[in-house]
Specification:
alpha+beta
């Protein structure tokens, strides 16, 4: 048996190239089909805004495609692994490698190394492109596919609860003491009854509350609207309740989400769900490394034994089971039922052990 971990350089390059070509070919086919189906479902909403046409449809495609790539890249790596290993098995190349003294882990080593490269590219792609595209698409959807606000830091349609009262700001700008609210509406309630509605074009944080300029009050009981001038309300409402009300982990990079979690911690607000998403930004791309291990069952066993198809189905089933467990763990983390670390890394570690167990018991 060979003592080096990898096969020869020629064999490693051959297997790695075969694996990458098939994985990205599957990904391209999936993206093409899924993007077409998604565009069919969303085109009526995009074209419903006056003046939208083909340019807006192409803009949607450029923003949605990175999300589809990020979501289905691990699945494409799984299929690419199965296709590569089945091809090698049918051509008796796996038998030749094992006859030369290579172990099952050494046969898989080039694929694992290539999947590490895919994981690194996936993480960088998510950080630089997917997060920005998700944030832009989310803001565009909130604007009903109309013109996007020029201020990228602008938050829209933010609701905050103040006791029984509800406060709505159409737009929120700035942070901390510099927070500014535009198109503010305050619903003054007592128990389940609405008493009055206070509206103002803008509000600024004064340190002791929110100063509303040119405010008006609508009395629900009398149906009369009266001007109130400049007033101060919401002494108990902090600026972070507006600026951190809508932290979307998909629209933030790893460092951006980490900073948002730090701000929430400073404000004394819960962050467990966001911490699970933070660590999943690493665990998600790294799941590509698991796929050669979970699909390895298709590589071994004689192709003429008639069990190659069954082995491929088992490998695919293991991969699908991982995706189900990963989504379940992240959902439990978002609900606070699992600790953040367990929600993000638990499925990865579990299926790593499952893959190693299957490989060792069957081939090693």
């Amino acid at each position: 048996m060979q003592t080096q971990f990898f096969p020869s350089r020629t064999m490693s390059i051959y297997m790695g190239r075969m694996f990458l070509v098939r994985s990205f070919a599957v990904l391209a086919a999936l993206v093409l089909v899924l993007q077409a189906l998604d565009l069919l479902g969303e085109s009526d909403k995009i074209l419903a805004y006056p003046g939208n046409g083909n340019p807006e449809l192409w803009t949607y495609v450029t923003l949605r495609t990175p999300q589809i790539i990020a979501r289905f890249l691990p699945f494409s790596v799984l299929l690419g692994t199965l296709i590569t290993l089945i091809t090698l098995n049918q051509n008796s190349e796996v038998v030749s490698m094992k006859a030369s003294g290579l172990s099952a882990h050494q046969v898989l080593a080039p694929l694992i190394l290539a999947s590490l490269l895919v994981a690194g590219v996936s993480f960088a792609f998510n950080e630089r492109i997917v997060a920005r595209a998700s944030d832009t698409l989310d803001r565009w959807e909130k604007a009903d596919f109309g013109p996007l606000p020029k201020d990228k830091a602008l938050q829209t349609n933010v609701w905050v609860r103040d006791g029984n009262n509800l406060v709505h700001a159409a737009e929120v700008r700035g942070r901390g003491a510099n927070t500014r609210l535009d198109k503010v509406t305050i619903y003054d309630r007592e128990a389940d009854s609405l008493l009055q509605i206070i509206e103002a074009p803008s509000a600024n944080f004064s340190g002791q509350g929110w100063t509303l300029a040119d405010a008006t009050r609508f009395n629900v009981a009398t149906g009369v609207t009266e001007p109130m001038g400049t007033i101060t309300v919401g002494e108990s409402i902090r600026p972070d309740q507006f600026t951190l009300a809508q932290v979307d982990p998909d629209g933030l990079s790893f460092m951006g989400l980490k900073d948002a979690i730090a701000d929430l911690n400073d404000a004394g607000r819960p962050t467990r769900a966001l911490e699970a998403n933070l660590w999943h930004k690493i665990a998600g791309p790294l799941s590509s490394v698991l796929m050669p291990l979970l699909g390895a069952v298709a590589a071994f066993g004689l192709a003429r034994s008639g069990q190659l198809f069954l082995r491929a189905v088992i490998g695919m089933a293991l991969g699908f089971a991982y995706f189900v467990a990963d989504n379940f763990g992240l959902a439990m983390g978002n609900l606070g039922a699992y600790p953040p670390w367990l929600a993000a890394w638990g499925p990865f570690l579990l299926f790593f052990l499952i893959g190693e167990t299957v490989l060792i018991r069957t081939e090693e």
